[in-house]
Amino acid sequence: MYKARIKILVQALGIDEFRRQVEAEWSHLKEGPTTVPDEEFARIAAHFAPPAWATLPAVDEGHAARVAGDLAFANWVRRCVHPHRTPGYAAVTLSLKAPGAAPGDISDTQMLVVADLAERFSFGELRVTHEQNIVLADVRQSDLHELWQTARRHRLATANIGLLTDIICCPGGDLCALANARSVPIADAVNEKFDDLDYLYDIGDISLNISGCMNSCGHHHVANIGILGVDKHDEEWYQITVGGQQGNAAAIGKVIGPSFHAHEVPLVIEALVTVYIEQRLPSERFIDTLQRIGIEPFKVRAYAGRDRRRGASQESREIVNV
Length: 322
Ligand code: SF4
Hints:
With 322 residues, the chain is α+β, with helices and mostly antiparallel strands. It has 13 helices and ten strands.
């Protein structure tokens, strides 16, 4: 009996034996007493009826005018508001990735604000996403500006959803006993390096995730740029992967080479982004460019100047130790 995660079990048994055991168990369970009949399915489904949406015009004129007249609001709408299947409604992502805050952190005050926003604007429902943000799924377009103003006052409206600073980050060594390395300070350092929202908009859609160990709670392996904490001789190091993605075209990122020291990581991210900016074709996202030109140019740039960076770091450590 294994208590470990499924990936450990698959590795121990081998994929063929694992598959054989799954098939054997399935033939034993199939159409047995735990099968859910249609009536039971319908009974449960009735508890998940859609909310009582109003009948609204597809486009709210007032909302369209506010978007046209307020750039900050328009930027928020562009990054944090999503189309809805019901005319006149939208889904909203409240960003928990404000500059200077640990990714996904929310204070007690903010929680009360979010609960109030859900009550007022989204049928009392909110959803926590695996990207460590919060979604209000059923908001009237006509309410978006008022919602945004409240969210902004409470640092819940950073217009960075899907951008480089919308980082998924596990608690890492600051809070998790399993960690090989800290995660949150790396996220902080990346945030500091990329603190210009206009540049983030220019870089566009990209995912950067950080895990403090191979358990991968930060989903680093399915990020366009993944950062994994590793332990080398009792020191924190970070392995970088590129090319991962989630969604229908899900892919595991590839390791670009030997791991980096913490102070190098923001510079490496900058190097990877620079290659993308230089090489991209119009409308190409980071992942598209990487898939077109391959990993090599990114790898070369990430390690270029490494000796110089190491030298500078050694020098600064010596100065500190004098
Ligand atoms: S990835 Fe590792 S360090 Fe991060 S939360 Fe999970 S177990 Fe802890």
